Amino acid sequence: MSVSAEWIAVDWGTTHCRAWAMSGDGRVLDQAKSAQGMGALTRDGYEPALLAMIGPWITNRTGENPIEVICCGMVGARQGWAEAAYTAVPCAPLSGNLTRVKTQDPRLSVAIIPGLKQNKPADVMRGEETQVAGFIALNPKFDGVLCQPGTHTKWVHISAGEVVSFQTAMTGDMFAALSNHSVLRHSVGDGWDDAAFDAALSDTLSRPETLAARLFNIRAEGLLHGLPNAAARARLSGLLIGAELAATRPYWLGQQVALIGANTLCTHYATALAAQGITAQRTDGDALTQAGLTAAHALLQETTP
User: Fold this and answer.
1) CB-side exposure of 249: number of CA atoms within 13 Å?
2) Is the pLDDT of residue 304 over 80?
3) pLDDT digits over 117-144, tens only?
4) DSSP state at residue 5
5) Residue (of 291, 296, 285, 287) closest to 113 by Cα position
6) Sign, CA torsion 48/35/282/169
7) With the C-alpha atoms ordered 124, 128, 133, 135, is the resulting torsion angle positive or negative?
8) What are phi and psi of 78, to 5 degrees?
9) CB 163 within 8 A of CB 116
């Protein structure tokens, strides 16, 4: 079945890229994926990679009627297709001007959503702001905190439709580094142990200063007492998330919290927050990304002469 997109939404990350053929009213007509993320491309490789994904959707386009392509994510990083300068908080997540990209193919009109920056304490986000914008578009009265678990977990304070402040925790990065490139690689395996996760979570949430010592305990428990690989994996996750929750307590304590991210990881965060009396709202990350890109497209239509 051939698809004639009215505009195209693109989420371009470090390792992968996703594109959606969109209707004028924000419906997804078709989708495409690519393993050509920012990390695999030079600056002159973005346009060919984009055309390889969306070519079938623009066969009827001409240079006189180019298709609008709205991109978010690492495509706007300094190493991306074109750098989209950060917008300083507090601000609406889509308050900055989109960055236009000069293309070789006249059928394309490409714009990139800028990321957000916080000057003190210094912090940045790129890509997550689009999910935040999508969440606000679907929940305009929300006042609370969005938690976006991942490689670099974001805690985002939202009020009156604006990002007030945010904080990043490198928990996912630390988990990957420790489980793959430290002595813990000999202990951490597949599987999961809920009890081990809960105990470790409680340990570092109440005493985050013990984190470094508790991490080596995982290896020692395996050598001396046969700690199973699944329990070691859950314990490592619990220790790191517990330390993160201790550091971000001002964000979630007494707040409405919504989780945006991969289902399994969000389940771990929901469990951790529930232990502190916080019932977190669960969301569909892909739907929020699409809603944010749709909001950016609408904003662009309003501001384009």
Assistant:
1) 10
2) no
3) 999 999 999 999 999 999 999 999 999 9
4) -
5) 296
6) negative
7) negative
8) -60, -30
9) yes
Dihedral pair phi/psi, residue 131, rounded to 5°: -65, -40
Q: Which residue matches tokens 């679907």?
A: 138
Helices and strands (DSSP H and E) totals, the chain:
9, 14
Cβ-Cβ contacts under 8 Å for 120 (sequence gap 6 or more): none
CA 137 from chain centre, in angstroms, equals 17
Position 1 pLDDT exceeds 60: no
Residue with tokens 């580094």: 177
Q: Check if the beta carbon of residue 127 is closer than 8 Å to that of residue 13.
A: yes
List, in order, residues 6 or more apart from 39 with CB less than 8 Å away. 14, 15
- The pTM of the full predicted model, rounded to 2 decimals, is 0.94
Spatial neighbors of 295 by CB under 8 A, at least 6 apart, are 94, 133, 134, 137
At position 301, the amino acid (one-letter code) is: Q
List phi, psi (to 5°) of 40.
-105, 5
d(CA 275, CA 273): 5
- The answer to whether 252 touches 242, Cβ cutoff 8 Å, is no
> How far apart are the C-alpha atoms of 19 and 123, rounded to whole Å?
28
Task: Identify the residue whose tokens are 């020692």.
Answer: 220
